[in-house]
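Hi everyone, sorry if this is the wrong subforum. Our group has a chain we'd like a structural model of before ordering constructs, and none of us has done structure prediction before. Sequence below.
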Amino acid sequence: QVRFVESGGGVVQAGGSRRLSCAASGISFSSIHMAWYRQAPGKEREFVARINSSGSTNFADCVKGRFTIDRDNTRNEVYLEMNSLRAEDTATYYCNRAYIPYPYWGQGTQVTVSS
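Answer:
Right subforum, don't worry. Here is the predicted structure as tokens:
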């Protein structure tokens, strides 16, 4: 079955960096466009970044220039490198298929940015 396991979250100071990882299983990973999403307390889940199967990327305006996304098709993993973190980046981060997420979500990984 489809499964996503996110990791790498934690507490980081404002201005700092963090690298998140997501291991996917149960999908034909190399042919799937993948994305990172996040959900802050009291807010809806939102798109953060996307990497297509071709390797092309796209970012939400609020993280553009600060976050990068990449993938390793040999490991079925997708990564989110977050730099210049801000308090407003505090959220639980999830990975899933881009454009039309699967109805199966992982537990996410919590990122807390302290000021």
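For your construct planning: The chain has a mean pLDDT of 97. The radius of gyration is 13 Å.
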